[in-house]
């Protein structure tokens, strides 16, 4: 008996065998079904790709903010005028044998270590670490005109510059760890930070603890001695990098004990023409202080046949009974009375006691 239909009555009995209708998928239906399945798979793949791209973008931004992203920048896009360098006598360093060795290494093997930069308020890249590497690449590009040296691999610090002192710490950290900075250079960084209007702390002595917190307290004490030395002597100390640790610390101690002699020390240092003479003046200053403490009379200096030095463009040669001054001035054109006043002032300055702070102006 045939099954009842949905209307509730039996199918007509025709006496013929009943056949079920086969519902196979036709070519068009199969194509539509395959297209729908493919579209669903594509949509799921795109959703997954977007999710992964978003995760990668987030990870990249985080890495960039942490300074973990390296980029190749043009050497001409890197500025060095925001932070003062942690090295003194930059021109001497740029032309030193060590710079030539670094250039030879980069020429043979390429730049192995990235520099580090940050964006200033105007969005320009400013150098934080790697002054020697950047300088070597610039020199190589000028010498060879090779495009390989026109770019520099740099790590970009994307952190906000909320703490200006942190910039100084990052700048000196690498060289401090390598012990590549002299005490005078480390002291100069503290003085530069104290003079920076963006740094709230104006006491260079106090900044030493923040800038060099990773160093032993004894080394920080040495740096403070050089801070005092540089701040008191200023440009009169013409070769601060050549002052050894012990000499600088002893001179600073003597200056604090006898501040009345600082003015005469400045004058003596300003008149020297070589590093050796500067070291001798500093050593004599310490010896005089020791003799003063012990009450000993100052011994006569070992007489030299002659010595020479420069004051600006004027060359002075000193020997027994003679002080020769050579300059571009025409002394015959100077009125006699003015020249006589200058000579009298010169003689008065020679006979001036070391403890007298008065300075005679020629």
Quick tags:
12 helices, five-stranded mixed β-sheet, three-stranded antiparallel β-sheet, disordered C terminus, 3 domains, 50% helix, Conserved hypothetical protein from pyrococcus furiosus pfu- 392566-001, ParB domain, 362 residues, alpha/beta
Q: Your description of this structure?
A:
This protein has 362 residues and is α/β, with parallel strands linked by helices. It is built from 12 helices and 8 strands. It has helices at 27-65, 90-94, 97-109, 131-144, 164-177, 183-195, 204-211, 217-233, 245-257, 262-270, 275-294, 336-350; strands at residues 70-74, 78-79, 115-119, 125-129, 151-157, 306-311, 314-319, 322-326. Helix 3 (97-109) packs across helix 4 (131-144). The longest helix is centred in the first third of the chain and has 39 residues, at 27-65. The termini are far apart. This is ParB N-terminal domain-containing protein.
Low-confidence stretches: 353-362
Percent range for β-strand residues: 5-15%
Overall radius of gyration: 39 Å
- Global morphology: elongated
- Share of helix among residues? 40-55%
Number of helices: 12
Order of helices and strands: HEEHHEEHEHHHHHHHEEEH
Please state the structural category: alpha/beta
Strand order of the largest sheet: 1-5-3-4-2
Beta-strand segment tally: 8
Topology:
Layout (H helix, E strand, L loop, with lengths): L26 H39 L4 E5 L3 E2 L10 H5 L2 H13 L5 E5 L5 E5 L1 H14 L6 E7 L6 H14 L5 H13 L8 H8 L5 H17 L11 H13 L4 H9 L4 H20 L11 E6 L2 E6 L2 E5 L9 H15 L12
Parallel strand pairs: 2-4, 3-5
Antiparallel strand pairs: 1-5, 3-4, 6-7, 7-8
Helix pairs in contact: 3-4, 6-7, 6-8, 7-8, 8-9, 9-11
């Amino acid at each position: 008996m045939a099954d009842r239909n949905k209307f509730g009555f039996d199918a007509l009995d025709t006496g013929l065998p009943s056949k079920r209708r086969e519902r196979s998928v036709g070519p068009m239906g199969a194509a539509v079904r395959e297209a729908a399945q493919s579209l669903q798979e594509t949509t799921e793949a795109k959703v997954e790709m977007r999710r992964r791209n978003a995760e990668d973008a987030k990870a990249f931004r985080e890495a960039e903010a942490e300074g973990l992203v390296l980029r190749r920048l043009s050497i001409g896009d890197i500025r060095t005028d925001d932070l003062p360098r942690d090295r003194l006598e930059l021109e001497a360093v740029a032309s030193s044998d060590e710079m030539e060795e670094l250039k030879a290494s980069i020429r043979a093997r390429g730049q192995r270590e990235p520099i580090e930069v940050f964006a200033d308020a105007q969005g320009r890249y400013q150098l934080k670490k790697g002054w020697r590497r950047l300088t070597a690449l610039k020199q190589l590009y000028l010498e060879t005109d090779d495009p390989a040296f026109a770019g520099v691999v740099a790590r970009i610090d994307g952190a906000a510059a909320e703490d200006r002192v942190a910039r100084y710490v990052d700048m000196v950290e690498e060289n401090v760890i390598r012990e590549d900075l002299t005490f005078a250079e480390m002291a100069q960084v503290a003085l530069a930070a104290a003079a920076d209007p963006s740094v709230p702390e104006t006491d260079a002595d106090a900044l030493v603890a923040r800038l060099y917190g990773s160093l032993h307290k004894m080394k920080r004490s040495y740096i403070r001695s050089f801070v005092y030395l540089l701040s008191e002597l200023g440009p009169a100390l013409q070769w601060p990098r050549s002052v050894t640790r012990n000499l600088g610390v002893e001179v600073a101690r003597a200056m604090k004990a006898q501040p009345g002699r600082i003015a005469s020390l400045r004058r003596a240092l300003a008149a020297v023409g070589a590093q050796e003479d500067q070291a001798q003046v500093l050593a004599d200053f310490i010896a005089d202080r020791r003799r003063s403490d012990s009450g000993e009379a100052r011994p006569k200096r070992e007489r030299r046949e002659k010595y020479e030095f420069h004051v600006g463009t004027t060359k002075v040669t000193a020997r027994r009974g003679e002080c020769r001054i050579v300059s571009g001035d025409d002394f015959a054109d100077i009125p006699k009375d003015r020249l006589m006043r200058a000579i009298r002032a010169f003689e008065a300055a020679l006979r001036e006691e070391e403890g007298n702070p008065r300075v005679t102006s020629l």
